[in-house]
Design goal:
Number of strands: 8
Family: Belongs to the sigma-54 factor family.
Oligomer: single chain
GO cellular component, one term: DNA-directed RNA polymerase complex
Helix content: 40-55%
Shape: extended
Pfam families: Sigma54_AID, Sigma54_CBD, Sigma54_DBD
Keywords: DNA-binding, DNA-directed RNA polymerase, Nucleotidyltransferase, Sigma factor, Transcription, Transcription regulation, Transferase
InterPro entries: RNA_pol_sigma_54, RNA_pol_sigma_54_core-bd, RNA_pol_sigma_54_DNA-bd, RpoN_core-bd_sf
Radius of gyration: 32 Å
Length: 502
Protein backbone atom coordinates (compact mmCIF):
# COMPACT_ATOMS: atom_id res chain seq x y z
CA UNK A 1 0.00 0.00 0.00
CA UNK A 2 1.11 3.50 -0.73
CA UNK A 3 1.83 5.53 2.43
CA UNK A 4 -0.44 8.54 2.85
CA UNK A 5 -1.73 10.95 5.47
CA UNK A 6 -5.36 10.47 6.47
CA UNK A 7 -7.42 12.75 8.72
CA UNK A 8 -10.05 10.97 10.78
CA UNK A 9 -12.62 12.12 13.32
CA UNK A 10 -13.59 9.99 16.28
CA UNK A 11 -14.62 9.92 19.91
CA UNK A 12 -12.51 8.61 22.75
CA UNK A 13 -13.30 8.38 26.44
CA UNK A 14 -10.67 9.98 28.66
CA UNK A 15 -10.65 10.74 32.36
CA UNK A 16 -9.23 13.76 34.13
CA UNK A 17 -7.09 13.25 37.25
CA UNK A 18 -9.97 14.52 39.36
CA UNK A 19 -12.32 11.89 37.95
CA UNK A 20 -9.73 9.18 38.43
CA UNK A 21 -9.38 10.14 42.08
CA UNK A 22 -13.15 10.23 42.59
CA UNK A 23 -13.56 6.77 41.05
CA UNK A 24 -10.73 5.37 43.16
CA UNK A 25 -12.26 6.71 46.39
CA UNK A 26 -15.69 5.48 45.33
CA UNK A 27 -14.64 1.84 45.12
CA UNK A 28 -12.73 1.81 48.43
CA UNK A 29 -14.24 0.10 51.45
CA UNK A 30 -14.72 2.09 54.64
CA UNK A 31 -11.56 0.72 56.27
CA UNK A 32 -9.49 1.40 53.14
CA UNK A 33 -10.97 4.89 52.87
CA UNK A 34 -10.06 5.64 56.47
CA UNK A 35 -6.47 4.69 55.70
CA UNK A 36 -6.53 6.83 52.56
CA UNK A 37 -7.84 9.82 54.52
CA UNK A 38 -5.21 9.33 57.21
CA UNK A 39 -2.46 9.29 54.59
CA UNK A 40 -3.87 12.46 53.05
CA UNK A 41 -3.96 14.18 56.44
CA UNK A 42 -0.35 13.23 57.12
CA UNK A 43 0.94 14.33 53.71
CA UNK A 44 -1.10 17.48 53.07
CA UNK A 45 -0.80 20.32 55.60
CA UNK A 46 -3.83 22.05 54.08
CA UNK A 47 -6.14 19.26 55.22
CA UNK A 48 -7.23 18.93 58.82
CA UNK A 49 -9.75 16.91 60.75
CA UNK A 50 -12.93 18.66 61.85
CA UNK A 51 -13.25 18.25 65.59
CA UNK A 52 -16.56 18.17 67.46
CA UNK A 53 -17.73 21.64 68.38
CA UNK A 54 -15.78 23.44 65.65
CA UNK A 55 -17.73 25.86 63.52
CA UNK A 56 -17.49 25.20 59.82
CA UNK A 57 -18.68 28.70 59.00
CA UNK A 58 -15.36 30.08 60.24
CA UNK A 59 -13.24 27.67 58.24
CA UNK A 60 -14.38 25.42 55.44
CA UNK A 61 -18.03 24.56 54.94
CA UNK A 62 -16.98 22.03 52.32
CA UNK A 63 -16.17 19.56 55.09
CA UNK A 64 -19.79 19.47 56.21
CA UNK A 65 -20.93 18.83 52.66
CA UNK A 66 -18.22 16.24 52.18
CA UNK A 67 -19.36 14.12 55.07
CA UNK A 68 -22.94 14.87 56.07
CA UNK A 69 -23.82 12.05 58.47
CA UNK A 70 -27.56 12.62 58.82
CA UNK A 71 -28.87 13.01 55.29
CA UNK A 72 -32.16 11.13 55.05
CA UNK A 73 -33.44 9.27 52.04
CA UNK A 74 -35.48 12.31 50.96
CA UNK A 75 -32.47 14.61 51.34
CA UNK A 76 -29.88 12.62 49.41
CA UNK A 77 -29.69 15.31 46.72
CA UNK A 78 -29.22 18.21 49.12
CA UNK A 79 -25.63 18.73 48.02
CA UNK A 80 -25.18 20.61 44.78
CA UNK A 81 -22.28 21.78 42.69
CA UNK A 82 -23.20 25.40 43.22
CA UNK A 83 -23.24 24.94 46.97
CA UNK A 84 -19.84 23.35 46.72
CA UNK A 85 -18.39 26.22 44.70
CA UNK A 86 -19.83 28.82 47.08
CA UNK A 87 -18.58 27.05 50.16
CA UNK A 88 -15.21 26.42 48.59
CA UNK A 89 -14.70 30.12 48.09
CA UNK A 90 -15.55 30.81 51.72
CA UNK A 91 -13.15 28.10 52.78
CA UNK A 92 -10.23 30.39 52.01
CA UNK A 93 -9.91 33.49 54.14
CA UNK A 94 -8.56 35.65 51.30
CA UNK A 95 -11.42 37.91 50.28
CA UNK A 96 -9.64 39.32 47.24
CA UNK A 97 -6.74 38.55 45.04
CA UNK A 98 -6.37 36.81 41.77
CA UNK A 99 -3.85 34.16 42.81
CA UNK A 100 -6.51 31.47 42.88
CA UNK A 101 -7.35 32.15 39.25
CA UNK A 102 -4.05 30.51 38.41
CA UNK A 103 -5.25 27.26 39.99
CA UNK A 104 -7.24 25.40 37.31
CA UNK A 105 -10.65 24.02 38.11
CA UNK A 106 -10.02 21.13 35.74
CA UNK A 107 -6.80 19.51 34.62
CA UNK A 108 -6.49 18.62 30.93
CA UNK A 109 -7.57 15.07 30.24
CA UNK A 110 -4.22 14.13 28.72
CA UNK A 111 -2.23 14.95 31.84
CA UNK A 112 -1.48 13.07 34.99
CA UNK A 113 -1.70 14.37 38.54
CA UNK A 114 2.08 14.29 38.93
CA UNK A 115 2.52 16.43 35.81
CA UNK A 116 1.14 19.49 37.62
CA UNK A 117 1.16 18.73 41.34
CA UNK A 118 3.64 17.04 43.58
CA UNK A 119 3.13 13.42 44.55
CA UNK A 120 2.00 12.93 48.13
CA UNK A 121 4.76 11.93 50.46
CA UNK A 122 2.58 9.18 51.90
CA UNK A 123 2.95 7.16 48.71
CA UNK A 124 6.70 6.88 49.25
CA UNK A 125 8.23 4.35 51.65
CA UNK A 126 9.23 5.79 54.97
CA UNK A 127 12.62 5.18 56.55
CA UNK A 128 11.58 6.49 59.93
CA UNK A 129 12.09 3.57 62.28
CA UNK A 130 10.12 5.28 65.02
CA UNK A 131 6.95 5.24 62.91
CA UNK A 132 7.36 1.65 61.72
CA UNK A 133 5.19 -0.70 63.76
CA UNK A 134 6.44 -4.16 62.86
CA UNK A 135 3.91 -5.99 65.03
CA UNK A 136 0.79 -4.38 63.60
CA UNK A 137 2.00 -4.73 60.02
CA UNK A 138 3.21 -8.32 60.15
CA UNK A 139 1.34 -10.07 62.93
CA UNK A 140 -1.17 -12.76 61.98
CA UNK A 141 -3.17 -15.29 63.91
CA UNK A 142 -1.39 -18.31 65.35
CA UNK A 143 -1.05 -21.24 62.94
CA UNK A 144 -1.72 -24.85 63.92
CA UNK A 145 1.94 -25.78 63.38
CA UNK A 146 3.21 -23.00 65.64
CA UNK A 147 0.66 -24.00 68.29
CA UNK A 148 1.85 -27.60 68.19
CA UNK A 149 5.54 -26.61 68.19
CA UNK A 150 4.92 -24.47 71.27
CA UNK A 151 3.51 -27.51 73.08
CA UNK A 152 6.38 -29.64 71.79
CA UNK A 153 8.90 -27.32 73.47
CA UNK A 154 7.25 -28.11 76.81
CA UNK A 155 7.71 -31.87 76.43
CA UNK A 156 11.06 -33.45 77.38
CA UNK A 157 12.36 -35.45 74.40
CA UNK A 158 15.59 -36.71 72.95
CA UNK A 159 17.01 -34.90 69.95
CA UNK A 160 16.07 -37.80 67.72
CA UNK A 161 12.45 -37.89 68.91
CA UNK A 162 12.21 -34.12 68.63
CA UNK A 163 13.33 -34.30 65.00
CA UNK A 164 10.67 -36.92 64.33
CA UNK A 165 8.04 -34.78 66.08
CA UNK A 166 8.91 -31.68 64.05
CA UNK A 167 8.69 -33.73 60.86
CA UNK A 168 5.28 -35.10 61.86
CA UNK A 169 3.97 -31.63 62.75
CA UNK A 170 5.06 -30.30 59.35
CA UNK A 171 2.91 -33.01 57.72
CA UNK A 172 -0.28 -32.02 59.59
CA UNK A 173 -2.71 -30.04 57.43
CA UNK A 174 -4.87 -27.11 58.48
CA UNK A 175 -7.74 -29.45 59.41
CA UNK A 176 -5.50 -31.25 61.92
CA UNK A 177 -4.94 -34.52 60.04
CA UNK A 178 -1.62 -36.23 59.30
CA UNK A 179 -1.35 -36.28 55.51
CA UNK A 180 1.68 -38.53 54.94
CA UNK A 181 1.69 -42.29 55.71
CA UNK A 182 4.20 -43.31 58.35
CA UNK A 183 6.08 -45.66 56.04
CA UNK A 184 6.70 -42.79 53.59
CA UNK A 185 7.94 -40.62 56.44
CA UNK A 186 10.24 -43.41 57.52
CA UNK A 187 11.77 -43.60 54.03
CA UNK A 188 12.36 -39.82 54.07
CA UNK A 189 14.66 -39.90 57.11
CA UNK A 190 18.41 -40.16 56.73
CA UNK A 191 19.47 -43.84 57.10
CA UNK A 192 22.29 -42.73 59.38
CA UNK A 193 19.73 -41.66 61.98
CA UNK A 194 18.55 -45.28 62.26
CA UNK A 195 14.89 -44.28 62.70
CA UNK A 196 12.44 -47.15 63.12
CA UNK A 197 8.70 -47.24 62.44
CA UNK A 198 7.92 -47.98 66.10
CA UNK A 199 9.72 -44.80 67.11
CA UNK A 200 7.65 -42.72 64.69
CA UNK A 201 4.42 -44.26 65.99
CA UNK A 202 5.46 -43.60 69.60
CA UNK A 203 6.18 -39.93 68.87
CA UNK A 204 2.91 -39.66 66.95
CA UNK A 205 0.97 -40.94 69.96
CA UNK A 206 2.58 -38.23 72.09
CA UNK A 207 1.62 -35.52 69.57
CA UNK A 208 -1.94 -36.89 69.51
CA UNK A 209 -2.16 -35.95 73.19
CA UNK A 210 -1.63 -32.27 72.33
CA UNK A 211 -4.35 -29.69 72.03
CA UNK A 212 -6.67 -29.41 70.18
CA UNK A 213 -8.08 -32.84 70.95
CA UNK A 214 -8.04 -35.13 67.94
CA UNK A 215 -5.05 -33.53 66.23
CA UNK A 216 -2.56 -35.62 64.21
CA UNK A 217 -5.17 -38.30 63.42
CA UNK A 218 -4.78 -40.28 60.22
CA UNK A 219 -8.49 -40.58 59.45
CA UNK A 220 -11.86 -39.49 60.79
CA UNK A 221 -12.36 -42.59 62.90
CA UNK A 222 -9.06 -42.08 64.73
CA UNK A 223 -9.83 -38.38 65.17
CA UNK A 224 -13.15 -39.12 66.88
CA UNK A 225 -11.62 -41.85 69.03
CA UNK A 226 -8.85 -39.52 70.23
CA UNK A 227 -11.47 -37.03 71.36
CA UNK A 228 -13.62 -39.68 73.01
CA UNK A 229 -10.65 -40.99 74.98
CA UNK A 230 -10.15 -37.55 76.53
CA UNK A 231 -13.72 -37.44 77.88
CA UNK A 232 -14.40 -38.43 81.50
CA UNK A 233 -14.91 -42.14 82.04
CA UNK A 234 -18.41 -41.58 83.44
CA UNK A 235 -19.66 -39.89 80.26
CA UNK A 236 -22.99 -41.50 79.27
CA UNK A 237 -22.82 -43.82 76.25
CA UNK A 238 -19.04 -43.37 75.95
CA UNK A 239 -18.31 -47.06 75.29
CA UNK A 240 -21.02 -47.26 72.63
CA UNK A 241 -19.73 -44.08 70.96
CA UNK A 242 -16.20 -45.53 70.79
CA UNK A 243 -17.58 -48.72 69.24
CA UNK A 244 -19.56 -46.76 66.67
CA UNK A 245 -16.59 -44.53 65.75
CA UNK A 246 -14.33 -47.55 65.44
CA UNK A 247 -16.53 -50.09 63.59
CA UNK A 248 -19.66 -48.49 62.14
CA UNK A 249 -18.70 -44.98 61.08
CA UNK A 250 -19.47 -45.79 57.42
CA UNK A 251 -23.05 -46.77 58.32
CA UNK A 252 -23.48 -43.50 60.20
CA UNK A 253 -22.18 -41.58 57.19
CA UNK A 254 -24.71 -43.25 54.90
CA UNK A 255 -27.55 -42.66 57.41
CA UNK A 256 -28.31 -46.39 57.55
CA UNK A 257 -29.90 -46.26 60.98
CA UNK A 258 -31.67 -49.62 60.64
CA UNK A 259 -28.34 -51.41 60.23
CA UNK A 260 -26.86 -49.47 63.15
CA UNK A 261 -29.77 -50.48 65.38
CA UNK A 262 -29.33 -54.15 64.53
CA UNK A 263 -25.54 -54.33 64.73
CA UNK A 264 -25.13 -52.27 67.89
CA UNK A 265 -28.22 -53.85 69.47
CA UNK A 266 -29.56 -50.55 70.72
CA UNK A 267 -32.99 -49.03 70.85
CA UNK A 268 -33.79 -46.02 68.72
CA UNK A 269 -33.66 -43.57 71.61
CA UNK A 270 -30.35 -45.05 72.82
CA UNK A 271 -28.79 -44.85 69.36
CA UNK A 272 -29.93 -41.24 69.09
CA UNK A 273 -28.04 -40.33 72.29
CA UNK A 274 -24.92 -42.13 71.05
CA UNK A 275 -25.09 -40.22 67.76
CA UNK A 276 -25.55 -36.94 69.63
CA UNK A 277 -22.34 -37.66 71.56
CA UNK A 278 -20.50 -38.34 68.28
CA UNK A 279 -21.90 -35.16 66.73
CA UNK A 280 -20.67 -33.12 69.70
CA UNK A 281 -17.08 -33.87 68.60
CA UNK A 282 -15.10 -31.81 66.12
CA UNK A 283 -14.28 -33.68 62.86
CA UNK A 284 -11.81 -30.90 61.94
CA UNK A 285 -9.87 -30.11 65.14
CA UNK A 286 -7.30 -27.97 63.34
CA UNK A 287 -9.97 -25.42 62.46
CA UNK A 288 -10.06 -24.36 66.11
CA UNK A 289 -6.71 -22.63 65.63
CA UNK A 290 -7.39 -19.47 63.65
CA UNK A 291 -4.48 -18.61 61.37
CA UNK A 292 -6.05 -15.74 59.45
CA UNK A 293 -6.45 -12.16 60.54
CA UNK A 294 -9.89 -11.09 61.74
CA UNK A 295 -11.92 -9.10 59.25
CA UNK A 296 -13.95 -6.19 60.56
CA UNK A 297 -17.05 -4.79 58.90
CA UNK A 298 -17.83 -1.11 59.34
CA UNK A 299 -21.26 -0.11 57.98
CA UNK A 300 -21.23 2.82 55.58
CA UNK A 301 -24.97 3.46 55.81
CA UNK A 302 -27.40 3.19 58.72
CA UNK A 303 -31.09 2.50 58.08
CA UNK A 304 -33.64 3.06 60.82
CA UNK A 305 -37.39 3.45 61.07
CA UNK A 306 -38.83 6.68 62.39
CA UNK A 307 -42.56 7.49 62.44
CA UNK A 308 -43.28 4.53 60.12
CA UNK A 309 -40.74 5.82 57.60
CA UNK A 310 -37.38 4.29 56.75
CA UNK A 311 -34.55 6.81 56.97
CA UNK A 312 -31.10 6.43 55.42
CA UNK A 313 -28.09 8.05 57.10
CA UNK A 314 -24.37 7.97 56.51
CA UNK A 315 -22.37 6.47 59.35
CA UNK A 316 -20.78 9.57 60.88
CA UNK A 317 -18.42 7.46 62.99
CA UNK A 318 -16.90 5.70 59.97
CA UNK A 319 -15.22 8.60 58.16
CA UNK A 320 -13.65 11.70 59.74
CA UNK A 321 -14.90 15.09 58.64
CA UNK A 322 -12.34 17.20 56.82
CA UNK A 323 -11.81 20.85 56.03
CA UNK A 324 -9.15 23.15 54.59
CA UNK A 325 -6.94 24.66 57.27
CA UNK A 326 -7.79 28.40 57.12
CA UNK A 327 -4.47 29.48 58.64
CA UNK A 328 -2.32 27.65 56.12
CA UNK A 329 -4.61 28.69 53.27
CA UNK A 330 -4.04 32.31 54.30
CA UNK A 331 -0.29 31.88 53.83
CA UNK A 332 -0.74 31.48 50.08
CA UNK A 333 0.30 34.80 48.51
CA UNK A 334 -0.78 36.17 45.16
CA UNK A 335 1.70 36.82 42.38
CA UNK A 336 4.37 34.83 44.19
CA UNK A 337 6.16 32.11 42.23
CA UNK A 338 8.57 31.05 44.97
CA UNK A 339 9.05 27.36 45.61
CA UNK A 340 7.35 27.50 49.02
CA UNK A 341 4.33 29.35 47.72
CA UNK A 342 4.02 27.03 44.73
CA UNK A 343 4.12 24.01 47.03
CA UNK A 344 1.41 25.44 49.29
CA UNK A 345 -0.75 26.36 46.31
CA UNK A 346 -0.43 22.81 44.97
CA UNK A 347 -1.32 21.34 48.34
CA UNK A 348 -4.33 23.64 48.61
CA UNK A 349 -5.66 22.55 45.25
CA UNK A 350 -5.07 18.89 46.06
CA UNK A 351 -6.93 19.30 49.36
CA UNK A 352 -9.87 20.96 47.59
CA UNK A 353 -10.08 18.14 45.07
CA UNK A 354 -9.81 15.49 47.78
CA UNK A 355 -12.69 17.01 49.75
CA UNK A 356 -14.75 17.30 46.60
CA UNK A 357 -14.08 13.64 45.78
CA UNK A 358 -15.28 12.66 49.27
CA UNK A 359 -18.40 14.74 48.74
CA UNK A 360 -19.05 13.00 45.43
CA UNK A 361 -18.56 9.60 47.04
CA UNK A 362 -21.00 10.33 49.85
CA UNK A 363 -23.61 11.78 47.49
CA UNK A 364 -23.46 8.73 45.25
CA UNK A 365 -23.56 6.35 48.19
CA UNK A 366 -26.59 8.10 49.65
CA UNK A 367 -28.45 8.09 46.33
CA UNK A 368 -27.84 4.39 45.76
CA UNK A 369 -28.62 3.37 49.36
CA UNK A 370 -31.81 5.43 49.35
CA UNK A 371 -33.02 3.78 46.17
CA UNK A 372 -32.21 0.32 47.55
CA UNK A 373 -34.19 1.04 50.72
CA UNK A 374 -37.05 2.43 48.67
CA UNK A 375 -37.13 -0.73 46.56
CA UNK A 376 -36.64 -3.23 49.41
CA UNK A 377 -39.01 -1.86 52.03
CA UNK A 378 -40.69 -5.27 52.15
CA UNK A 379 -37.45 -6.91 53.25
CA UNK A 380 -36.94 -4.35 56.01
CA UNK A 381 -40.50 -4.85 57.25
CA UNK A 382 -41.05 -8.59 56.80
CA UNK A 383 -37.72 -10.30 56.10
CA UNK A 384 -36.06 -12.22 53.28
CA UNK A 385 -39.28 -13.77 51.97
CA UNK A 386 -40.46 -10.28 50.99
CA UNK A 387 -37.27 -9.45 49.05
CA UNK A 388 -38.03 -8.07 45.57
CA UNK A 389 -36.01 -8.75 42.41
CA UNK A 390 -33.44 -6.04 41.80
CA UNK A 391 -30.58 -5.62 39.32
CA UNK A 392 -27.93 -2.94 38.86
CA UNK A 393 -29.73 -1.56 35.83
CA UNK A 394 -32.79 -0.66 37.95
CA UNK A 395 -30.76 1.47 40.38
CA UNK A 396 -28.66 2.95 37.56
CA UNK A 397 -31.80 4.22 35.84
CA UNK A 398 -33.26 5.57 39.09
CA UNK A 399 -30.18 7.63 40.00
CA UNK A 400 -29.10 8.47 36.44
CA UNK A 401 -25.69 6.76 36.60
CA UNK A 402 -23.89 4.00 34.74
CA UNK A 403 -24.14 0.40 35.92
CA UNK A 404 -20.37 0.27 36.45
CA UNK A 405 -20.67 3.14 38.94
CA UNK A 406 -23.44 1.31 40.81
CA UNK A 407 -21.26 -1.80 40.88
CA UNK A 408 -18.41 0.18 42.47
CA UNK A 409 -20.72 1.73 45.04
CA UNK A 410 -22.23 -1.59 46.12
CA UNK A 411 -18.92 -3.47 46.42
CA UNK A 412 -17.53 -3.69 49.96
CA UNK A 413 -20.11 -1.18 51.19
CA UNK A 414 -22.34 -2.27 54.06
CA UNK A 415 -25.75 -1.22 55.33
CA UNK A 416 -26.74 -1.50 58.99
CA UNK A 417 -30.43 -2.38 59.31
CA UNK A 418 -32.60 -3.57 62.20
CA UNK A 419 -32.28 -7.05 60.65
CA UNK A 420 -28.48 -7.02 60.60
CA UNK A 421 -25.55 -5.74 58.56
CA UNK A 422 -25.63 -6.55 54.84
CA UNK A 423 -23.42 -5.73 51.90
CA UNK A 424 -25.26 -3.55 49.42
CA UNK A 425 -24.86 -6.29 46.80
CA UNK A 426 -27.00 -8.55 48.98
CA UNK A 427 -30.11 -6.61 47.99
CA UNK A 428 -29.61 -7.43 44.30
CA UNK A 429 -30.97 -10.72 42.98
CA UNK A 430 -32.45 -12.23 39.85
CA UNK A 431 -36.13 -13.08 39.51
CA UNK A 432 -38.30 -16.11 38.82
CA UNK A 433 -41.72 -15.87 37.20
CA UNK A 434 -44.83 -16.75 39.15
CA UNK A 435 -48.02 -18.40 37.94
CA UNK A 436 -49.88 -15.11 38.31
CA UNK A 437 -47.51 -13.32 35.93
CA UNK A 438 -45.48 -11.63 38.66
CA UNK A 439 -41.86 -12.00 39.75
CA UNK A 440 -40.24 -13.52 42.83
CA UNK A 441 -36.73 -12.75 43.98
CA UNK A 442 -34.19 -15.57 44.14
CA UNK A 443 -33.34 -14.39 47.66
CA UNK A 444 -36.97 -14.84 48.68
CA UNK A 445 -36.99 -18.33 47.15
CA UNK A 446 -33.89 -19.27 49.14
CA UNK A 447 -35.60 -18.03 52.31
CA UNK A 448 -38.68 -20.16 51.54
CA UNK A 449 -36.50 -23.23 50.87
CA UNK A 450 -34.67 -22.67 54.16
CA UNK A 451 -38.00 -22.40 55.97
CA UNK A 452 -39.36 -25.58 54.36
CA UNK A 453 -36.24 -27.57 55.26
CA UNK A 454 -36.33 -26.32 58.85
CA UNK A 455 -39.91 -27.56 59.23
CA UNK A 456 -39.48 -30.92 57.48
CA UNK A 457 -39.78 -34.35 59.08
CA UNK A 458 -36.26 -35.39 60.08
CA UNK A 459 -37.05 -39.05 59.30
CA UNK A 460 -38.33 -38.20 55.82
CA UNK A 461 -36.56 -35.03 54.61
CA UNK A 462 -37.87 -33.20 51.56
CA UNK A 463 -36.26 -34.01 48.24
CA UNK A 464 -35.48 -31.31 45.69
CA UNK A 465 -38.43 -32.46 43.56
CA UNK A 466 -40.76 -32.25 46.56
CA UNK A 467 -39.53 -28.74 47.39
CA UNK A 468 -40.08 -27.70 43.76
CA UNK A 469 -43.65 -29.03 44.02
CA UNK A 470 -44.29 -27.08 47.24
CA UNK A 471 -42.96 -23.91 45.62
CA UNK A 472 -45.18 -24.48 42.60
CA UNK A 473 -48.15 -24.82 44.93
CA UNK A 474 -47.32 -21.30 46.12
CA UNK A 475 -47.26 -20.04 42.55
CA UNK A 476 -43.46 -20.04 42.15
CA UNK A 477 -42.31 -21.92 39.08
CA UNK A 478 -38.87 -23.35 39.84
CA UNK A 479 -37.20 -26.37 38.28
CA UNK A 480 -35.72 -29.13 40.42
CA UNK A 481 -32.15 -28.31 39.35
CA UNK A 482 -32.74 -24.67 40.33
CA UNK A 483 -33.91 -25.80 43.75
CA UNK A 484 -30.74 -27.89 44.06
CA UNK A 485 -28.61 -24.86 43.15
CA UNK A 486 -30.34 -22.64 45.71
CA UNK A 487 -30.12 -25.37 48.36
CA UNK A 488 -26.38 -25.78 47.81
CA UNK A 489 -25.86 -22.02 48.02
CA UNK A 490 -27.52 -22.11 51.46
CA UNK A 491 -25.18 -24.88 52.59
CA UNK A 492 -28.06 -27.36 53.00
CA UNK A 493 -27.15 -31.00 52.41
CA UNK A 494 -29.18 -33.27 50.10
CA UNK A 495 -32.16 -35.11 51.54
CA UNK A 496 -30.18 -38.36 51.86
CA UNK A 497 -27.74 -36.62 54.21
CA UNK A 498 -30.37 -34.73 56.20
CA UNK A 499 -32.04 -37.88 57.48
CA UNK A 500 -32.03 -37.97 61.28
CA UNK A 501 -33.38 -40.10 64.09
CA UNK A 502 -36.15 -38.40 66.02
Amino acid sequence: MKPSLVLKMGQQLTMTPQLQQAIRLLQLSTLDLQQEIQEALESNPMLERQEDGDDFDNSDPMADAADNPTASSEASDSFSESTYQDSLGSAEPLDEGDWNERIPNELPVDTAWEDVYQTSASSLPSNDDDEWDFTTRTSVGESLQSHLLWQLNLVPMSDKDRLIAVTLIDCINDQGYLEEPLDELLAAFDPELDVELDEIEAVLHRIQQFEPAGVAARDLSECLLLQLRQLPANTPWLAEAKRLASDYLDLLGSRDYNQLLRRMRLKEDELRQVIELIQSLNPRPGSQIESSEPEYVVPDVIVRKHNDRWLVELNQEAIPRLRVNPQYAGFVRRADSSADNTFMRNQLQEARWFIKSLQSRNETLMKVASQIVEHQRGFLDYGEEAMKPLVLHDIAEAVGMHESTISRVTTQKYMHTPRGIYELKYFFSSHVSTSEGGECSSTAIRAIIKKLVAAENAKKPLSDSKIAGLLEAQGIQVARRTVAKYRESLGIAPSSERKRLM
